[in-house]
Amino acid sequence: MSTGATAISAVSSILGGIAGGKGAKKAAKIQAQAYREGLAQQQAQFDQTQANFAPYLAAGNQGLSGYLTLLGLNGNEAQGSAIDALKNSSAFTSQYDTGVDTILQNAAATGGLRGGNTQNSLANFGSNLLNTVIQQQLGNYGGLISTGSGSTSTLGSLGQQNSNAQSQLYGQIGSANATAAAAPYAAFQGIMNSIGGNSKGIASALGW
């Protein structure tokens, strides 16, 4: 190969190294930006998932509060108010009115309307019905607690998955940024190697 051709080859290698370094840096930056967009999308999806689960978590909290109150764990006054609320609820009053009418009708038919047995029957019926309604309400609250607990568990698992995915993306962003930062130095090293390998040809072409 002539000295001129050698010099041209060396210069081409230098220019190619510069262009390659710039290209590698640009590509790494584009890759890092893609990872950042993926990270934003990952977080947006998890935020939406949290919003979707929010009503179930709120229902679970309300169920737990109602359950504890009805058991008297939030104080006697709160428990009394909760029981009074059940007494005034349609779940109790509709059944109570129907039951009382039935008892009175039976008493009237048998001539015992004003007897003590009738009064005892009414008292026992009201007490038993209230206990039944309370147990039903505790069961309803238990269902809400179960829903909230299940949602909490599922959301916790999804949160861990989201954390792992974000950690991976952060690592990829760091790697891409490191590649972008190192690209000019890698290109410079390639240029220096090219100059070193063709130094005699370049010197000859320049008449040195």
Question: How is this structure best described in words?
Answer:
With 208 residues, the protein is mainly alpha-helical. The two termini are 18 Å apart. The protein has one domain. The protein contains 5 helices and no strands.
Q: What's the structural blueprint in terms of helices and strands?
A:
Layout: H1 3-70, H2 76-87, H3 90-110, H4 116-197, H5 199-205
Helix pairs in contact: 1-4, 1-5, 3-4
Task: Give keywords.
rod-shaped, disordered C terminus, mainly alpha, 5 helices, 208 residues
Instruction: Report the sheet-strand fraction.
Output: under 5%
- Cα radius of gyration in angstroms: 40 Å
What's the overall average pLDDT, rounded? 76
Structural class: mainly alpha
| Run of helices and strands | HHHHH
Short structural summary:
With 208 residues, the protein is mainly α. The chain has helices at residues 3-70, 76-87, 90-110, 116-197, 199-205. Helix content is 91%, strand content 0%.
